[in-house]
């Protein structure tokens, strides 16, 4: 019996950007489903409500257990879903590059007179870090990158970062596990090691590390 995963993209993108990762996970024996949403057009609770309807449809089609993999903002959509409908989280969650503690880069954009509108509806109760608590019993693994190229050079992100999100921002209260890999914020979607770590967590509820790093 194959295991199903639903993948969610992040800010300013669509299903297309998750397809390379979906392909790598299919190679590891998973069945994949993609959920698309217009990231800046509605609030995260509205995205979560739409996702809830999609999950009800999938469960009606005889999918018993569904895991979740979400990139960046997609992980915050899942946080809202988990708080709104914890009964629909029937598998494990892996978030990659998700700023669970809020995004310093987004904060600077939001408070800029010229650039605040580019975030649409994604800042309040999302990228500002003011998120609902993760319900007990939900197994979430957070994967971060520390290859800091991109916006990180422009905005001078403090500490290790993936070029967009700081490693410290990817910690989620109540998470099951956390790991940092040498990847960029977008590059993690195309990286085999990232796909391997996702697979391990979805199977066993933890990431795997070289023995000398344990």
Topology of helices and strands:
Layout (H helix, E strand, L loop, with lengths): L2 E6 L10 H9 L2 E6 L8 H17 L5 E6 L1 H12 L8 E4 L7 H7 L12 H5 L12 E6 L5 H5 L21 E5 L10 H13 L10
Parallel strand pairs: 1-2, 1-3, 3-4, 4-5, 5-6
Helix pairs in contact: 2-3
List keywords for this structure.
Rossmann fold, 214 residues, alpha/beta, six-stranded parallel beta sheet, 6 strands
Describe the structure.
It is a single chain. This protein is an alpha/beta fold and 214 residues long. The protein has one domain: Rossmann fold (3-Layer(aba) Sandwich), CATH 3.40.50. The chain contains seven helices and six strands, in the order E-H-E-H-E-H-E-H-H-E-H-E-H. The mean pLDDT is 91. Strand 1 (3-8), helix 1 (19-27) and strand 2 (30-35) form a beta-alpha-beta unit. It has helices spanning 19-27, 44-60, 73-84, 104-110, 123-127, 151-155, 192-204, and strands at residues 3-8, 30-35, 66-71, 93-96, 140-145, 177-181. 32% of the residues lie in helices and 15% in strands. Keywords: Hydrolase. It comes from Neisseria montereyensis. Residues 5-98 form the AB hydrolase-1 domain. Pfam families: Abhydrolase_1 (PF00561).
């Amino acid at each position: 019996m194959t295991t199903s995963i639903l993948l969610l993209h992040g800010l300013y993108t669509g299903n297309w950007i998750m397809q390379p990762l979906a392909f790598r996970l299919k190679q590891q024996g998973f069945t994949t489903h993609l959920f698309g949403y217009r990231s800046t057009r509605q609030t995260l609770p509205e995205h979560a409500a739409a996702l809830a309807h999609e999950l009800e449809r999938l469960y009606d089609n005889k999918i018993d257990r569904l895991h979740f993999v979400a990139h960046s903002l997609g992980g915050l959509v899942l946080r809202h879903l988990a708080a709104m409908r914890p009964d629909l989280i029937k598998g494990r969650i892996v978030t990659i590059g998700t700023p669970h503690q809020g995004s310093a880069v987004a904060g600077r954009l939001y408070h800029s007179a010229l650039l605040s509108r580019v975030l649409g509806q994604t800042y309040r109760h999302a990228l500002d870090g003011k998120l609902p608590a993760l319900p007990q019993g939900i197994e979430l693994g957070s994967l971060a990158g520390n290859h800091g190229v991109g916006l990180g050079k422009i905005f001078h992100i403090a500490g290790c970062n993936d070029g967009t999100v700081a490693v410290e921002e990817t910690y989620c209260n109540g998470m099951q596990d956390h790991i940092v890999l040498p990847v960029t914020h977008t590059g993690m979607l195309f990286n085999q090691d990232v796909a391997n770590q996702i697979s391990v967590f979805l199977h066993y509820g933890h990431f795997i590390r070289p023995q000398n790093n344990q």
